[in-house]
Automatic annotation (TrEMBL):
SUPFAM superfamilies listed in its UniProt record: F-box domain (SSF81383), RNI-like (SSF52047)
Species per Swiss-Prot/TrEMBL record: Arabis alpina (Alpine rock-cress)
Gene3D superfamilies: 1.20.1280.50, Ribonuclease Inhibitor
Cross-referenced InterPro entries: F-box-like_dom_sf, F-box_dom, Leu-rich_rpt_Cys-con_subtyp, LRR_dom_sf
Stated name of the protein: F-box domain-containing protein
Domain called F-box: residue spans: 16-63
Domain of life: Eukaryota
Length: 288
């Protein structure tokens, strides 16, 4: 993704008239290479011709609001709403690590064609906010969720997303303490997501029982990523079944060098985990 530091300023645009004289289709191609914040905060301010191109709905089919932690969350939230408005209902993909339940509702009410959603579930975004969003997205095919300290039931999400083909669930080690059994996620997937083709469960606490349920009930599954799933014990028929059935299989001990998420996970897991007797108090304090 291009950096905003490479963008011409308004003065440079005036000095080099070639920027403003670029064909609209070439300018559009440039804009599609930039992230959402770069476009709204920089590119559209370069010159009037760029401003006009930046209003084109095709630029806003994909919105990426991640990796802007140094910026004010409320400002980014307003920016996200503006980007959704410009999509004019054509938004098909969004990735975000900021927001609130009200922002999720705003997106849901204006994005009937959304097919791919990536979200980090941290306060003030709640599980109910996610469920209400998904319930309004009948075309959703891909869901990626990063969660920590937040209980999340997958059955309501699966029932609301009959077209779901890709699920990526990344969780810190502590999140497992919020569940009655370590196979809650796996059993929710097995019961409500039969159309899955690609499943990624990073740092999940599922066991062989949960894995077997997924293989039994997700007949179209081709890609399975179980890295950092320390409760899985691959051997015998279960291992053979995974190797013969799946086109791509990532084992619990496979390298996570391509997953920056695990830098965060390692930091959480290096801290002292709560004992089982404290689960109720954690549940009260951390679930919104």
């Amino acid at each position: 993704m291009a950096s905003s530091s490479c963008m011409p300023t308004r003065k440079q645009c005036e000095d080099l008239s070639g920027w403003s004289e670029l064909p609209p289709e070439l300018t559009l191609s440039i804009m599609l290479r930039l992230d959402t914040v770069d476009i709204l905060d920089n590119a559209q301010k370069v010159c009037s011709s760029w401003w006009r191109v930046c209003k084109h709905p095709s630029i806003w089919r994909k919105i990426d609001m991640r990796s802007r932690t140094a910026m004010d969350g409320h400002y980014l939230g307003r920016m996200c709403r503006h980007a959704v408005d410009r999509s004019q209902g054509g938004l098909v993909e969004i990735r975000m690590n900021i927001g609130s339940d009200s922002l999720l509702e705003y997106i849901a009410d204006r994005s009937p064609n959304l097919r791919s959603l990536g979200l980090e579930l941290f306060y003030p975004i709640s599980y109910n906010g996610l469920v209400n969003l998904v319930a309004k997205l009948p075309l959703l095919e891909e869901l990626e969720v990063v969660r920590a300290f937040l209980k999340m039931e997958l059955k309501p999400i699966g029932r609301a997303s009959p077209k779901l083909k890709i699920l990526k669930l990344k969780c810190t080690g502590w999140s497992s303490f919020l569940y009655k059994t370590v196979d809650d996620d796996a059993l929710g997937i097995a019961e409500t997501m039969p159309e899955l083709r690609h499943l990624q469960l990073l740092g999940n606490k599922l066991t062989n029982t949960g894995l077997t349920a997924i293989l039994d009930n997700c007949p179209h599954l081709e890609h399975l990523d179980l890295r950092k799933c320390s409760n899985i014990k691959l051997s015998g028929d279960l291992e053979k079944r995974c190797l013969e059935r799946l086109k791509e299989f990532r084992r619990p001990n496979d390298s996570t060098d391509d997953c920056p998420f695990f830098d965060i996970l390692s930091a959480f897991e290096s801290a002292k985990e709560p004992d089982n007797n404290s689960v109720d108090s954690i549940d009260e304090l951390l679930l919104w």
